[in-house]
Automatic annotation (TrEMBL):
InterPro entries: Knr4/Smi1-like_dom (IPR018958), Knr4/Smi1-like_sf (IPR037883)
Signal peptide (from-to): none
Organism: Vibrio aerogenes CECT 7868
Name of the protein this chain belongs to: SMI1 / KNR4 family protein
Pfam families assigned to the protein according to its UniProt record, in alphabetical order: SMI1_KNR4
Knr4/Smi1-like domain residues: 42-156
Superkingdom, natural source: Bacteria
Amino acid sequence: MTDKFQNLINLGIRPLKNAQSDLKQYLKNHQAAASDLPEDKGYRDFLNHFSQTSVFDKEVCFTGQEASAFSDHGKEFLEALFAECEDSNNDLFSLREKYAEQLPDNLFVIGEVTGGNLICLDKNAGDSVKVWDRTVSGDLSQSLFHIADSFLDFIDLLEETQDDVSDNSNAPKVVNYTPSEIMKAKVAEYLKKQNK
């Protein structure tokens, strides 16, 4: 195992499902899709070392160069990195096919973050890594957020989530609110008007 993937090992990378995997056979079975794999050498090396869809024993996050609306103060939480998987919802080439009508050919889905947004390699931008926020409608360029310039740069951004209890100044405050009788009456009156 090379040093470039030591960060993944330290974060507890492991296969999502314990199944036998033969990357060469997998690529052969998906020959047309495999020919479309991004050229990024770091990503191809990753697939050679981690040929099954992977998850982590630790909670893993990263902060990219741009933040999506779902990020927590710029942090995204990594759920999975896709490769071969018997479950088509987590299989690299099945996902390529699933999103073929929503994503142009230059975007290759390689992972998922919390909230169901997807991590893509952009083959038109030097195989840079982006998060695709699937909730943003309209122009695709408005829903892509640049994370890193390459897959290995992306791997370097991954870190274990730290519970930061020292600085909660930006954390949402839980408020207990009990409306007054006057407020309850006004709300009831408003709702009554809306239901007419």
